[in-house]
């Protein structure tokens, strides 16, 4: 029996069997990512791989205001400052998110917790003007919400969107290094993101970088 005859018989058999279809199995290592919840972690990690170093960190650095410039912008009104300098998170009543970079003196520090923080005096009056989150637990979604390229409509649902926020916080937390010894009285340079829903609420910075000097 010739090869052409065999192929012809196979084709006839395939079309004569109702409900039958040919299924191609993808090669190992090329399995499709689930569109459901089971694929969230894969998609989240890929987003971070694609955007964290190349887009997010430069975006925050390039847009960062000094602390005096940030306060001056807020004096014009939160919404006005946000439209000019910030980015708003998704959902009704979401916070405006601002990039800020400056240096202050550490006047308070809470380091005996997984949610470590330091309070910085930015104007020399001896009192704390803002709080820097130092991890390993970092709260909020400021890193996600500062970036317009993390669009809620591109995510499966609110749960997947929240997973990205947590993953970004974890990535930054792993990068924060503090020196040994007491931090009080030392200087801290920082670049990070401040979320605000009201102009007079406490200023809490989620950093992308911190540096402590004597």
Structure notes:
Helix 2 packs across helix 6. The longest helix has 24 residues, at 40-63. The model is unreliable at 3-17, 20-24 and 26-30 (pLDDT under 50). With 214 residues, this protein is α+β, with helices and mostly antiparallel strands. The protein starts with a helix and ends with a strand. Helix content is 35%, strand content 24%. The chain is built from six helices and six strands, in the order H-H-H-H-E-E-E-E-H-H-E-E.
Write the layout of secondary structure elements.
Layout: H1 3-16, H2 40-63, H3 67-74, H4 78-85, E1 87-88, E2 96-110, E3 115-121, E4 130-136, H5 142-145, H6 158-173, E5 187-196, E6 204-213
Parallel strand pairs: 4-6
Antiparallel strand pairs: 1-2, 2-3, 2-5, 3-4, 5-6
Descriptors:
214 residues; five-stranded mixed barrel; 6 helices; globular
Short description:
Helices cover 35% and strands 24% of the residues. With 214 residues, it is of the alpha+beta class.
| Unreliable runs | 3-17, 20-24, 26-30
Please state roughly what percent of the residues sit in beta strands, choosing from under 5%, 5-15%, 15-25%, 25-35%, 35-45% or over 45%: 15-25%
The residue fraction in helices comes out at: 25-40%
Round the mean pLDDT to the nearest integer and report it.
Answer: 88
Largest sheet: 5 strands, mixed, barrel
Overall geometry comes to globular
| Number of alpha- plus pi-helical segments | 6
